[in-house]
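lol ok so funny story. i was supposed to be doing the assay writeup but got distracted and ended up predicting the structure for this chain instead. priorities right. anyway since i did it might as well share w the group, maybe its usefull for someone
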Amino acid sequence: QVVLSESGGGLVQPGGQLRLSCVGSGFPFSKHYITWYRQSPGKQREMVARVLRDGPTTYADSVKGRFAISRDDAKNTVYLDMNNVTPEDTAVYYCNVFFEFRDYWGQGTQVTVSS
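and the output, tada:
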């Protein structure tokens, strides 16, 4: 079955950096785009960044220039490098894959930006 597992969240100070990881299994990882989403309390889940097969990327305007998404298909892993974080980046971060006509989600990893 499809499984996505996020890790790397935690408490970070404003201006700091963090790397999130998403490991996938149960589907042909290298052939599918992977997307990072985030959700803050009381807000809708929003797309943060996406990496297509072979590497092209897209970003939400709110993170452009600060976050970088990348993939290592040999490790079935997608990374989200978060730089110069702000309190507005506080959220649960999820990775997502659309496979065989449905969405799959990981359990999420909490990122808290606070001094």
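The chain has a mean pLDDT of 97. The two ends are 40 Å apart (CA to CA).
back to the writeup now i swear
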